[in-house]
Amino acid sequence: MPSSKWEAHNVxxxxxxxxxxxxxxxxxxxxKDTDVGxxxxxxxxxxxxxxxxxxxxxxxxxxxxxxxxxxxxIFYTISFNAVQMGLQVSLSLLxxxxxxxxxxxxxxxxxxxxxxxxxxxxxVQNLHTASTVGLTTVIVSDNIGTLTRRQMRVTExxxxxxxxxxxxxxxxxxxxxxxxxxxxxxxxxxxxxxxxQIGVPKLKRLLYGNMFDMTLLRYGMQFISDIDKLRRDYxxxxxxxxxxxxxxxxxxxxVVDEDGQPKLILLMKGHCDVVLRRCSSIxxxxxxxxxxxxxxxxxxxxxxxxxxxxxxxxxxAYRDIDREVEVRRFSLIHGGARDTDSRYRDYMxxxxxxxxxxxxxxAHYPPRSTIRNxxxxxxxxxxxIVIVTSQRxxxxxxxxxxxxxLGETMSVFHSDPRMTIIDTSTDIVDMMEFVGLKPNHQxxxxxxxxxxxxxxxxxxxxxxxxxxxxxxxxxxxxxxSVIGYSLHHTPVLQRANVGVAKFGGAITCDAGADAIxxxxxxxxxxxxxxxxxxxxxxxxxxxxxxxxxxxxxxxVHFSFFLIKLPFWIRVMSVFIIQFIVNLIPAxxxxxxxxxxxLMMQKPKVYDDYLVNxxxxxxxxxxxxxxxxxxxxxxxxxxxxxxGFIPKxxxxxxxxxxxxxxxxxIDTYGQEWNxxxxxxxxxxxxxxxxxxxxxxxxxxxxxxxxxxxxxxxxGFDNMALNVAFLFLIGLIIFFNxxxxxxxxxxxxxxxxxxxxxxxxxxxxxxxIVIEASRRYFLRMFPESWLATLxxx
Length: 791
Prior knowledge:
By secondary structure, the chain is of the alpha/beta class. It is 48% helix and 13% strand.
């Protein structure tokens, strides 16, 4: 008695159809207790948090911290005599520290990567998937159509007691036994060529039917030029479908013999052991020999070895219907009986034993040519592969060997924990061994398998076990990408971090998936993972570039309140820096090429932050202070040029912006009224803005790489080259075009020489420090410098 409903042949699941006959049925489950109900319940479970959601949550904490710091600064530094001015300066700092560029920058990166993934045959439906899939640590996939091609291929033919390859060049010279076998696989076949394909080569025509029948028909079309004529000559009189219980397909055909007399023949197709039991003779070299025990064992053992190698094997047999009773029965049926049920039921009266064995045909789903390379890339990238299939362990093992997931030797896994062989290689697990266990015990077994095996192949897997595997991966902290195509895969896709459907699958599967593989290939998903990893690396480069100006804003703010300098960056300048100077060039960094082999690195599950302490150290300790120093030196130099040496600026922070004060005296004794001071302040604004743009233009070129030499990496990113020219154009624009007053920017004289002689030492220092840092990171990848600055 079967221990599971999945092994029983008398259990009908929801949506099963009774093709014929009648029987009494007993309902053993209904509603949510059925498999369909269970799938619906699992499909509504809470989904894991996406990577983008984690990043946005991180920045929400950052913005809350910025607001708290700014409010605290206002409370301790603002003067009650100049509340409005203090609030304006603090508001400027608050807007400057807020990552206002992040939402559009993140959207642009996801949208661009999504389009690149579409070129890799992956349609992303959920934009967050473009980032989350790069963090994948486990891929749970089916096998048919994903690791293999979608069409089967005939590989071996057994005829004349000889097993030959289907690619044998002289296979059609094997004589009449081979010709009879080819006719049998075309006639005892329910597949047919779809109409409307005039002019299409016969081997490229579309067929309709089940996959194995279409494979046999397509193979037979190589040797029979006109299969329609063959089927007309051998008119089908009766046929019995291929049920799983009997594993036989039987057809009866009417043909005219050499004497012009009608003749009936019976053809049989089915599993080798079933067909062999009904055969009594075999054709060998045009001679009909008795099928003795020796031949029976040879054919049976050969069939078993083909099945163990992953082949789908069908045997064919033949018999003439020559008894008068049988001929009369089929003559009456063919002569006009309208009851088709009785027509196809009466075949059972025919003697389906004492047949002549014609031969065997073996076929399989050939693996895709790109899968071995994809499996190798997964292993170097630290991604575990879990293959889940409902096929038998033999077929699963053969496919795993073909694609490189499994070696030639296979370890044995026992359901008894005391007998478990701990192996770090790939294992084949028959999930039927765990069906009788309690759910908690099954989950424990799956966790042990996932922990002990490099990769895993699960055969005879049920819907619940498929879900348990994904759930176990999630509970152990893995980021799971699942490939599915049928209705049964819908709850698994919902439970996964990234649900990937194959094109042409169930509608519910496509609707619930985050992405759709248009070619259904496993290799396409691996290529998408590399693109997503590149997005994450480039996003960190963009953040490093954009956050470098924060230190300048902080030091300018503190200089206003602590040193009491009349120096602050106005709100309009903040917006220009945030959206024009930072955002637009940072968007070009998203298009940067990979500087390293990203699929040679492990997934950064525990370092999944766009902004980490190492990036903050580089932007706020190394790069930021250099840019701030350039800004302050330019400020003091220009103010000294206009009559205010640094010492004379101390204590003027509020009086400088007070409209009622008209008696501020510079170092040379000149008196400055409010209007002249505001004009000078606008000129200082253009000085600060131009300085930051020039420093950021050098920083943009340095941000192309995190470790590699910039010159070696090259300048193939044309978008970044244009962005660099864009920054240079901004400098020229702001210093040559008269802007409206609300920009609070005014032109200065001889700006080109003024900036050149002041900026180049700081630009050189920035280049030397960053180039040296990258050099030592390459030379000493595990040093303290890498721990401190390798973001």
